[in-house]
């Protein structure tokens, strides 16, 4: 989980095969403090979305190096290789690019890091795809065919065509390699613009846009998986849309999870609609329990001292909460770690993820810390929210690193897993099984991944959760709007 596969040395390759394209998700180093299972829950939609826009006379293949299947395909060498680049795997993306270019392929780099650092990426590619890729990918392939590939293509997130984008080509994914292949996306953008979020990148305009609920439900139905994960930044930004989407999802009898902001609980009717539509888990960026940190980050959010009550609303609707917390804000002192973990246990968050504050290049936060001389280095490999890359204000970098690791150690301990068990006794066995597989099995994950056993390992637990959920929601529907009971249905929302 630490090193990418070695790329084979020089070979006498035949010339690249025309009309063949390969899309690659490069390898990145996994944080041993967190679960290795996190990386095979659900695939990113970047490559499947672009693949869906490929003209039919091209053969297209996907390759995710994180699935540990060895070096990427090279026989035959494809005419075009598209690589997705985030800052944490930029170095690997450039290595792959050089390797394929040396063998005659035309290499296209796209993704978030190309958008924020095009000058860095440019020398490594035959062409850059900056921004939205579904629009530009067919144009790039057409230019390759005509022999007039440009150096740069720009796709905009503001065009009104989003709702007409083709469904991601999920059939190209290896189905057994993920907990679910049903990564879904219904919206893009977010009503917030937190200073540390990639959405705040200079020059990036991502207005909130929505796709058709019926189309999303049809995609989910077609993928034949019991569980789906919405990869939207914030599925709850537009309440009316959320209600429409839930109405479309409800008949599927499937379960799903999504990222939302905690203000979704302003309207308990939305939470109820989500529960009745199959939502069993939400991922919430609480970020911090210290209000001034949130104000400084420009996050519009209810006050942290109201978080616990709001988590209760979700729990009463059978929705598990995976909370995300960021450490290293200027208001954080060394007590922040213990305070946060104890709060998580008191409120019984079923899961939490921790992040060391990471200023992404191109964001206001990066600029400000750079101006203050607090950026420690530009080794993007370590900009993975698991390493300290700037000088914190109220503790040393070492203390921040230690505190982060202590939080994961504590939260993944058997004692903490037990303390956070659901109050509904019937839900405890599945909760424990899922927690142990997710949090205590880093020794097993590489083997499961290599042997494509991730899907089969999760499937019985996911199916159990789906059935429990269907019983729960039948009772919820029968009990009327005021009837959400304090039962927690264990879901796959680990
Ligand atoms: C699913 C997901 C994951 C999955 C899968 C990740 C993976 N294999 O890439 C898991 C859970 C494993 C994961 C883990 C992490 N993730 Co993540 N993840 C996401 C999430 C929610 C959805 C990605 C997605 O499907 N987007 C939808 C697609 C369609 O959009 P897109 O990726 O931007 O692609 C479009 C364009 O960029 C372009 N494009 C992209 N690639 C290419 C390539 C070519 C050739 C072309 C032409 C175009 C092109 O075209 C696409 C269509 O328009 C995003 C948030 C988000 N909503 O994007 C965060 C996000 C990508 N993750 C993020 C982070 C920080 C992480 C972690 C580091 C967190 C952690 N500490 O664990 C880890 C480590 C992963 C890593 N090193 O990359 C950040 C990245 C920030 C940044 N500036 O780099 C994001 C943006 C979340 C956030 N709000 O901060 N993640
Ligand atoms: S609420 Fe989340 S997705 Fe929205 S801007 Fe803030 S960090 Fe980004």
Portion in beta strands: 15-25%
Q: Tell me which CATH architecture of the largest domain applies here.
A: Alpha-Beta Horseshoe
CATH topology of the largest domain: pyruvate-formate lyase- activating enzyme
* Ligand catalogue: cobalamin, iron/sulfur cluster
Count of individual beta strands: 14
Arrangement of strands in the largest sheet: 2-1-3-4-5-6
| The CATH fourth-level homologous superfamily of the largest domain | tm_1862 like domain
C-alpha geometry: globular
- Spans of at least 5 consecutive residues whose pLDDT stays below 50 are 486-494
Structural class: alpha/beta
Which CATH class of the largest domain is shown?
Answer: Alpha Beta
Number of helices: 17
Total number of distinct structural domains: 2
Specify Rg, calculated over alpha carbons. 22 Å
Helix content: 25-40%
Give the rounded overall mean pLDDT. 94
Q: Biggest β-sheet, characterized?
A: 6 strands, parallel
Distance between the first and last residues' Cα:
20 Å
Question: What does it look like?
Answer:
- This protein is of the alpha/beta class.
- The protein folds into two domains: 17-155, Response regulator (Rossmann fold), CATH 3.40.50.2300; 174-479, tm_1862 like domain (pyruvate-formate lyase- activating enzyme).
- It is 35% helix and 15% strand.
- The chain contains 17 helices and 14 strands.
- The strands form three sheets. It has a six-stranded parallel β-sheet, with helices on both faces. Strands 7-10-11-12-13-14 form a six-stranded parallel β-sheet. Strands 8-9 form a two-stranded antiparallel ribbon.
- Strand 5, helix 5 and strand 6 (152-155) form a beta-alpha-beta unit.
- It is globular and about 65 Å long.
- The two termini are 20 Å apart.
- Residues 486-494 have low confidence and may be disordered.
- The site of iron/sulfur cluster has 11 residues, from loops.
């Amino acid at each position: 989980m630490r090193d990418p596969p070695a790329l084979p040395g020089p070979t006498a390759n035949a010339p690249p095969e025309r009309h063949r394209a390969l899309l690659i998700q490069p390898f990145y180093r996994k944080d041993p403090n967190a679960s290795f299972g996190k990386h095979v829950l659900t695939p990113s939609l970047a490559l499947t979305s672009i693949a869906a826009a490929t003209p039919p006379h091209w053969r297209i293949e996907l390759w995710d190096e994180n699935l540990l299947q060895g070096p990427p395909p090279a026989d035959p060498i494809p005419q075009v290789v598209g690589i997705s680049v985030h800052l944490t795997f930029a170095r690997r993306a450039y290595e792959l690019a050089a390797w394929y270019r040396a063998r005659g392929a035309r290499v296209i780099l796209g993704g978030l890091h190309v958008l924020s650092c095009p000058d860095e990426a440019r020398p490594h590619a035959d062409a850059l795809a900056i921004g939205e890729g579904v629009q530009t990918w067919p144009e790039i392939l057409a230019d390759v065919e005509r022999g007039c590939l440009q150096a740069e293509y720009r796709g905009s997130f503001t065009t009104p065509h989003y709702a007409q984008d083709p469904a991601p080509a999920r059939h190209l994914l290896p189905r057994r390699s993920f907990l679910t292949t049903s990564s879904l996306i219904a919206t893009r953008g977010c009503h917030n613009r937190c200073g540390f979020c990639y959405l705040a990148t200079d020059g990036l305009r991502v207005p909130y846009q929505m796709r058709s609920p019926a189309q999303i439900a049809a995609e989910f139905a077609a993928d034949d998986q019991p569980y789906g994960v919405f990869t939207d930044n914030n599925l709850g930004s537009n309440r009316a849309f959320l209600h429409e989407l839930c109405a479309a999802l409800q008949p599927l009898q499937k379960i799903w999870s999504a990222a939302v902001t905690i203000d979704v609980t302003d309207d308990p009717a939305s939470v109820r609609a989500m529960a009745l539509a199959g939502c069993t888990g939400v991922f919430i960026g609480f970020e911090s329990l210290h209000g001034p940190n949130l104000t400084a980050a420009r996050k519009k959010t209810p006050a942290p001292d109201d978080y616990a009550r709001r988590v209760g609303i979700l729990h009463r609707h059978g929705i598990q909460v995976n909370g995300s917390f960021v450490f290293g804000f200027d208001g954080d002192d060394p007590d922040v770690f213990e305070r946060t973990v104890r709060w998580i246990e008191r409120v019984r968050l079923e899961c939490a993820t921790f992040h060391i504050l990471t200023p992404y290049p191109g964001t206001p936060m990066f600029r400000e810390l750079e101006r203050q001389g607090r950026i420690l280095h530009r080794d993007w490999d370590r900009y993975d929210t698991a390493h300290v890359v700037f000088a914190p204000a109220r503790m040393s970098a070492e203390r921040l690193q230690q505190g982060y690791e202590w939080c994961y150690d504590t939260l993944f301990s058997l004692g903490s897993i037990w303390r956070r068990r659901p109050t509904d006794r019937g839900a405890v066995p599945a909760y424990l099984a899922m927690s142990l597989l997710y949090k205590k099995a880093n020794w097993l994950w590489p083997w499961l991944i290599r042997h494509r056993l991730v899907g089969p390992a999760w499937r019985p637990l996911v199916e159990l959760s789906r059935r429990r959920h269907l019983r729960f929601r039948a009772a919820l529907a029968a009990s009327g709007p005021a009837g959400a009971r304090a039962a927690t249905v264990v879901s796959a929302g680990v």
